[in-house]
Write a structure and sequence with these properties.
Elements lengths: L1 H7 L1 H11 L11 H8 L3 H13 L3 E3 L6 E3 L1 H30 L3 E7 L2 E8 L21 H7 L4 H12 L21 H14 L2 E4 L6 E9 L5 E10 H4 L3 H18 L5
Antiparallel strand pairs: 1-2, 3-4, 3-7, 5-6, 6-7
Helix pairs in contact: 3-4, 5-10
């Protein structure tokens, strides 16, 4: 009886439809008939269920082809779940950096054109870095921001930089409202810094984000081999300035360990 109740529930049936839309065949969307065929359900029931899921933002429907795809809310939920898992998994690794360097450490991601901190581990200094969870900052003058951009191709970086500067022909819709303000770094300078990150595996900043503050960051890779986060260490220049390269190498080592825990290839 328990199994019958489980498989008879509307929620489970709706999840089955979402799984169908996640199949490789559904990359360009699927019509109601094909979804019904793949799920083994009645076409009329599938049509009603997909309409309900579309109203909730869990699927989207192309106005021209009438094909269904996973919706914006589904991606938002998946992103939130992934980031929650990442922050929890990375916590003990971040604490090893604090124990080694005795400096505040952050785990950062890129959202809508800004760098956000998922988790902070604070050092024991009387004067220490603050926790930055939920606060968005400029990626151009921060080491985690540059690390998170470092895997992008030249065309994407250029388009994104010009959009930030407000000079793109078609600005990207998910960027913050900084149009018209020139970025604090030229496109050539940014390209050079991204190339440096790819070569040595970490980035440093020296009072670029804030006077008296220095930092290092290294990339964390997910199971697909793409950069999903950046490990960051920041501190006053008087304490960390002379140790930046060593701190960068250690941050890279710890970031690699987090990547391995996430199942990153290589």
């Amino acid at each position: 009886m328990a199994n019958q109740r489980t498989y008879g529930s509307g929620l489970v049936r709706d999840v089955d439809l979402l799984e169908v839309l996640a199949l490789p065949e559904a990359r360009d969307g699927l019509g109601v008939s094909r979804v019904a065929e793949l799920s083994g359900r009645d076409k009329a029931q599938v049509s009603r269920a997909l309409a309900t899921l579309a109203d909730a933002g869990l699927v989207s429907r192309d106005e021209h082809t009438r094909a269904y795809r996973p919706g914006w809310r589904l991606f938002a939920l998946a992103t939130h779940a992934t980031e929650t898992h990442l922050a929890h998994l990375a916590a003990p690794f971040l604490r090893t950096i604090v124990a080694r360097l005795n400096e505040t450490t952050h785990l950062c991601v890129l959202r809508a054109g800004q760098v956000f901190t998922l988790r902070s581990e604070l050092a024991s200094h009387a004067f220490r870095g603050l926790g930055w969870e939920g606060i968005g900052v400029d990626p151009f003058t921060t080491s985690p921001g540059r690390v998170l951009l470092s895997e992008w191709d030249e065309e994407t970086v250029g388009h994104w930089w010009r959009t930030f500067a407000g000079i793109a022909a078609h600005p990207l819709p998910d960027l913050p409202g900084a149009a018209g303000e020139p970025p604090p770094i030229t496109l050539d300078q940014l390209a050079g810094k991204l190339a440096g990150i790819r070569k040595r595996g970490y980035e440093t900043v020296d009072e670029e984000f804030e006077p008296g503050l220095v930092g290092v960051s290294a990339p964390v890779y997910g199971f697909r081999g793409d950069i999903v986060a950046a490990v960051n260490v920041s501190a006053p220049k008087s304490r960390l300035g002379a140790r930046l390269p060593a701190a960068g190498r250690f941050a890279r080592t710890v970031a690699d360990r987090i990547s391995a825990a996430l199942g990153a290839p290589g």
